[in-house]
Each structure stands twice: as structure tokens, then as C-alpha cells.
């Protein structure tokens, strides 16, 4: 049993067909079938049950599938770790970030990281928290910069400072000169809601016994700010997101509501190899 055979076995198990697996592996079907026959003979068990259109794992096959994934991941992580050392902290760091992260990646801490590790390049994937979590679980990014709340059972987390949500509006919508407001004061006013927080905003409104008058939902905090700046309504966004887009016309009021507080968070998978580059990046993030 060798690494190559285990990779072949995993591909067959994941594809559910020898033909599809052979195509994915860029090899002919007969030698692939031969390799699996040799593996079964060596282990003394049957790994697959052949159906008319698909193959299924036996109990022995399920055990090997679990262990093979762990072995392959360990081999890959070892290779990556050695490669990190050989490169002397050079390479590309794949990270994901939400649009509402503000200037978190441009702040002093991250600037120091870039200065110390000037040979590091970045691949930045920008999307919403749930998409970034999906990319992280699939191994397409190493670190995600997301916002609470989210289910964190699968991840290690490094939290930045908590911040409030704010109501950002053109002067024509400003009904008072206060810098802080209660959530109930937004009843009956046209709201621009960042969809990421729509559920929790609706829950808070319900608690205060009113249904929010939603002018529009957006998938990007910057869009919320731009629309508010154009006078279309009142944007509800995290405080640090206001500076992401043009906001010269806006009055910004902190919403005094504990349920509407959020944190930028660096997350990475539990039980998975984390490159030395990613570890250093997280250390600098922790200094924010």
C-alpha cells in the first residue's frame, strides 16, 4: 500500500465510478482497476461493492477512506511545512475577507507583517461570511476574515475588538442631533439593510414591536453606504464599514443595542495544517 494507491482509492470513492475516477486521474481504466485489485489483495478485504451504475464502499472501505484522507492530508501538510522552511517565508497566502472588514487588512499591524515578510504575496477572496466559511472548509483559503455571529465549532478564532452597528443617513433623514440612538427610533424610516445582518435586525425590531420599513437589501456593506450617501435611505452597517465608500453626506449614529454588536474575526480550520505564513499573519492580526 503506497500513497499513490491511496489517492487512487480516494478518487474512486469520491467519484463513485471507476470510469469517472480514471478520467479525473488522467489514466486508463484497466490499470486503475488493477491497482485497486492489488490493494484489496494486500489488505485481504473487499473495498468496493459494484452496482450497475455506481460502486459503494464496504465497511472495510469506509475505514480505509477515513484513514486514507488523514494520511494524505498529513503527507501534504508535511510537504507544505518543509516547503515553507525552504522558502524562508516566501510564497502566496490565500485569505478570504468580508466587504465590511473595513481597513482591517490595511491597518498598522498588517502593514508591519508586510514590511517584515516582503516576499509574501496575497490571493484575496472577497465574499460574505458564509461563502468564506465554505471556501475555508474546502481548503481554498487558509484564513478567513469574517464577522460574528457565525457557527464556530469547526474553527479556531482570533477576535478583534467588538464594535457597534450604526445608522448612516443623509442630513434630510436626520431627526435629531444625537450621536447615539435607540433601535426603536428607526421605526417607520426607510432602511438600507446589509443582508448579512437582516435576520438579527428583524429580530431586534420585533423585540421593539415594529416591522422595519426596508427600502432595500444589499450584499455589500459598501453598497449600503453608497446608497445612504446618495440619500436613498438609512444604512445599518458595522461602524468600521462607514469609511469603505463615499460618505461625505452622511450623519452617523451609533445604535445602542447589545444584540447589534459585532466583531471582525480571523478563523482557520481545526485539525488542519496551517502554514507558517498563515500563523505569522494571524499573530499580526491578534495585535490589532
From TrEMBL:
CDD domains (UniProt xref): PBP2_LTTR_substrate
Organism superkingdom: Bacteria
UniProt xrefs under PROSITE patterns: HTH_LYSR
Domain HTH lysR-type: 1-58
Keyword annotations of the record: DNA-binding, Transcription, Transcription regulation
Recorded GO MF terms: DNA binding; DNA-binding transcription factor activity
One of the record's GO cellular component terms: cytosol
Record carries keyword Metal-binding: no
Family annotation (Pfam families): HTH_1 (PF00126), LysR_substrate (PF03466)
InterPro entries, per database record: HTH-type_LysR_regulators (IPR050950), LysR_HTH_N (IPR000847), LysR_subst-bd (IPR005119), WH-like_DNA-bd_sf (IPR036388), WH_DNA-bd_sf (IPR036390)
Family: Belongs to the LysR transcriptional regulatory family.
Record's protein name: LysR family transcriptional regulator
Organism: Pectinatus cerevisiiphilus
